[in-house]
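Q: What residues go here?
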């Protein structure tokens, strides 16, 4: 497939919209995470994280790779920021590595770690790019995991202390703060199924990890607000609309259960102050880790809700002997990404509209903090033509516009990701970037999708 769009064409969305159709204050950015891009895993006093341990354990990552070097962004950040400026984004979402700032997870701060984020923040502001800081994107300090990790309550309070350190250092320049990225992934892949660090396989007994991550969000929100007057604080959830395979009541019940398990278990406590009931999730969990007052802490009103969208999920009723109340059905009728995910732009519109309908006045303004796609990009004669990513972005951004037309209060959109990077248990194979990373040379090669996004951001029409 050659590009439908080529340099010189208007930078429009799939429905013809241009940037001018969105409000002036709308944040247009890209997103990354510390472990996925920084490298320099053991320099300047940084402590080990659970992802350092996990990737250094043979057999955990598909291609055997690690984030030891990744995109070498810790060293090359200034050039990366200059490339972002060339792209024309007005915002950039990055995460701070907890073990870089507090190497053992509690106690002494490593000033060189904070200095890095200070330099990065200044470099962004120097180019007129507003930083959006995520405080936790999965790299828990290993010493805290050794004491139980997210299964123990104390980790939430250590997170609040670390958040306070970061907020005090960057709060004079950073307005928007995301406490936690994708609690569902942390607890499900990290503690229920063990495919992510720290690799615990606790199935239904992983609920304390869910609760303590959400509690960490609550107490860190208090810490950031205390340190930074006027801070805009939120949490980012990875949300997947759940569709029943057929109109049968059994499939509808399966869809409703999975929606409660993977979406509402994370949204409801933050927005409504209550978990969905066990009758709704149909998962037998021990709720004794919830203490009096926790849900009030977790449900302090948010300034913004971050939404990461990749695809919807189709389910049917479970077969005999399935311990789960649903069975996932592959959506093979749709274009498939390199992650095996279906491409369904309308799912993003439906999701944003359904949040508004479901949570009404409890819903704060929303930002799409991640949306993007991995396709098998190739470097040919020094260039990377990725027409499928161009179309993916054009259609998903149009879906955001449609949701806004329908009344959704969306304030920003961040492409995942700025550059190809370490995709967790999948290693370096999936390429999500607008910029191709040549890992052998660390050369950055902007793809056609970068050119398209730049044209859209400039308002070329
Ligand atoms: O790479 C991840 C990111 O770290 C969290 N959200 C989903 C992305 C793609 O899998």
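A:
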């Amino acid at each position: 497939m050659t590009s439908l769009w080529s340099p010189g064409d208007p930078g429009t969305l799939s429905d013809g919209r241009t940037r001018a159709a969105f409000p002036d204050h709308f944040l247009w950015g890209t997103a990354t995470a510390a472990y996925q891009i920084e490298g320099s895993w053991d320099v300047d006093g940084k402590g080990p994280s659970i992802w350092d341990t996990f990737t250094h354990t043979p057999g955990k990552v598909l291609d055997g790779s690690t984030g030891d070097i990744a995109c070498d962004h810790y060293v090359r950040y200034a050039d990366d920021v200059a490339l972002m400026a060339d792209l024309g984004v007005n915002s950039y979402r990055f995460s701070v590595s907890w073990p870089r700032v507090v190497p053992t997870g509690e106690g002494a701060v490593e000033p060189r770690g904070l200095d890095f984020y200070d330099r990065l923040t200044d470099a962004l502001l120097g180019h007129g790019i507003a930083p959006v800081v995520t405080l936790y994107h999965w790299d828990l300090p290993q010493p805290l995991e050794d004491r139980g990790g997210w299964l123990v309550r104390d980790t939430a309070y250590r997170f609040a202390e670390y958040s306070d350190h970061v907020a005090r250092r960057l709060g004079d320049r950073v307005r928007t703060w995301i406490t936690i990225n994708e609690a569902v992934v942390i607890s499900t892949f990290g503690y229920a199924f063990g495919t992510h660090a720290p690799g615990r396989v606790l199935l239904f007994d992983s609920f304390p990890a869910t609760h303590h991550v959400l509690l960490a969000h609550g107490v860190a929100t208090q810490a950031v607000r205390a340190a930074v007057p006027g801070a805009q604080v939120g949490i980012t959830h990875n949300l997947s609309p759940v569709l029943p395979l057929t109109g049968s009541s059994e499939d509808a019940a399966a869809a409703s259960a999975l929606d409660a398990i993977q979406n509402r278990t994370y949204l409801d406590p933050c927005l409504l102050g209550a978990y969905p009931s066990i009758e709704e999730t149909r998962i037998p969990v021990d709720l004794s880790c919830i203490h009096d007052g926790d849900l009030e802490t977790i449900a302090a009103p948010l300034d913004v809700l971050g939404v990461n969208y990749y695809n919807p999920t189709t389910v049917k009723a479970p077969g005999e002997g399935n311990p789960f109340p649903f069975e996932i059905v592959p959506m093979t009728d749709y274009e498939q990404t390199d992650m095996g995910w279906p491409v369904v732009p309308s799912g993003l519109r439906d999701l944003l509209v359904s949040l508004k309908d479901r949570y009404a006045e409890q819903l704060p303004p929303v930002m799409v903090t991640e949306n993007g796609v991995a396709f098998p990009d190739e470097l040919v004669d020094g260039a990377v033509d990725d027409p499928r990513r161009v179309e993916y972005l054009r259609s998903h951004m149009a879906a955001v516009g449609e949701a806004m037309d329908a009344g959704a209060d969306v304030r920003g959109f961040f492409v995942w990701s700025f550059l190809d990077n370490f995709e967790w248990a999948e290693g370096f194979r999936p390429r999500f970037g607008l910029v191709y990373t040549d890992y052998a040379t660390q050369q950055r090669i902007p793809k056609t999708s970068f050119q398209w996004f730049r044209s859209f951001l400039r308002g070329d029409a």
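A: Context that may help when evaluating the design: Residues 33, 36, 182, 308, 370, 416, 423 surround 5-hydroxymethyl-3,4-dihydroxypiperidine (CB under 6 Å). The chain has a mean pLDDT of 97.
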